[in-house]
Records
---
Amino acid sequence: MNVDNLFGKRATRWLTPVLAAAAFTCFGALSAQAQQLPALATIRLSPEDVERGRQGVQQNFFFLAPGKTGENYQSAGFFGQKLRPYIASNPEAVNDLDHYRRQKTLYLVDKALLVGSVALYGSQVFSHGDAVYFNNTQKVAAGVAVFSILATVFINRHTNEYLKQAVDDYNSGPPAGRKGALWPRVRPAGVGLASTAQGQPLLALRWHL
């Protein structure tokens, strides 16, 4: 026994769009619910760290791990190493964290270079008895110190942004998962029924452009 025999052809013509409309509604509800689930597994930076921008201070970030609430923020570590286990499943986030680690390494090298050049300059002041402030070695040391100070500006320019981007990438979900984000843009804003001049039922869909 098919549907036409059970309900009649006319009833079937009305039943089809009704079932389609119900399917759209249910699918939309499930999609909206699925979008809300990842929010429960996000990483939260401390309010002070969220406000960091370019040329910000070079100190550890503090964050709440996925599923954690409250104000008990934990340190991400100097290189962000304590954050890495939480974002390991997201290649984009890991890549940004690698950039952050690179910048922090350059920061350490730059600081060591500055301290070393200042120490070298100072060691030359009384190395020959009388005070000397601008011999050839001191000229080199002074040049290295100036270079280091300038390099610090460029090294620190985007350092903090890399870690913040790593967190944003993780909270946005993996690249493959974001493909499903197309559905909210193409999902109808409204579903209803209409009829043709001959009285045939039609499924009416409406989108917000």
Note: The CA atoms of residues 60 and 78 lie 5 Å apart.
---
Amino acid sequence: MLKAYSSHGGDAEERLFIMWNVFVFAILSGMVGLIAYEIFQEVGGSSAPLHDRYHE
């Protein structure tokens, strides 16, 4: 078991390091997921062509 998660404690620097790693991993995983979703949408195509309502 990790020292930072044990009931005996663990120093604050270790807990901060682990929390920072989890935070960075979550952000990077989210970005990869969004990029993969965009690629999947582009490869799969769209049911309708894009329609520019701003310049109408």
Note: The chain has a mean pLDDT of 80.
---
Amino acid sequence: MHLREGSQRFMDTHNADFERMDVKMIEEALVSEYFENGEDSLYRVYEVRAD
């Protein structure tokens, strides 16, 4: 998923909640000028496990 600053803060704030639900970040990379206005994006890949 590509995240803007506000979404990054949301995901970081709720990281412990996500881990309790077996959702874990497995990869992260900065993508320069991803959005139309030239704004950078933080690209994150999450693994979701359902038992």
Note: The radius of gyration is 12 Å.
---
Amino acid sequence: MNKKILTIMTALVLTLAVAMPVMADTEQEVKGATVVDDTASDSYKTNKPNPGDSVKSGTDTDEIFTLTYDSADLKIVNNAGGENNRPDANAWIGVKITAPEGVKGITKVEQDNSLGNASAIDENKLTKTFESDNKTLHEYFHVNVTELENAVEKGNEYLTYALKYTWDYNNQATATASNDETKVATTTVVVKIKVAGVTLVNDGTGTEQVLWDTAKYNAKKSEVEAAAKAEAEANKKPTAAKTNKEKDNTPGTGVENVYAVAGLVAVVTLAGAVVLNKRK
């Protein structure tokens, strides 16, 4: 190729490169919430409950975070020491939620019964405002003996709470982000507490009282299983009417069988009489 032609072509390529508009990446990363354990020190006995990293699922715009506590060494909180939303006679699993980028407020918080089997204490636990930093909030999930026993009676391995947050990007009560693919419309926080893994104590009286542990869990489970077995056995027993009916149909007993035998004797007698007459 001629040197002059090569020079012209090089200059043309450079000119086109400068003139060509830069194609920006139009796809924006969807930045969701973060959810971590934040159980207060006054609600556990020795070791802080550790669910590990929260597991994210769902979709980019409707995300779900799950925290699973397979063991929890808890104690009842009495006189909550300045903490809000934690009424007495419960232990509390705490969770800190950081809202997605750009969120101005919270439109609503609701329980997701499709994911949870336990109910939050609405007037005390469903926080609808941010902390002073305007981007984080805390939720507390109660644990008590009644909830644990109910879970065993229902056959639930976990006490499961699920709260769904609808985010407000415009700080208006009617606003949602569901029509904007670059924004997270909802975040659902699922907290799973293994019933067999809970140790629950109450030292409010000055003497530690064990309210729930492995032994009490096993005792409750055995009680429930024994009751279920007794009910199943009771359902197998025949009713009095059925027993009488079976007796009436027993061969050799009952009115119908007596008549049948009498009829047979009469027929045989009659046949014998006919035979004797013929011989005469």
Note: The CA atoms of residues 106 and 129 lie 7 Å apart.
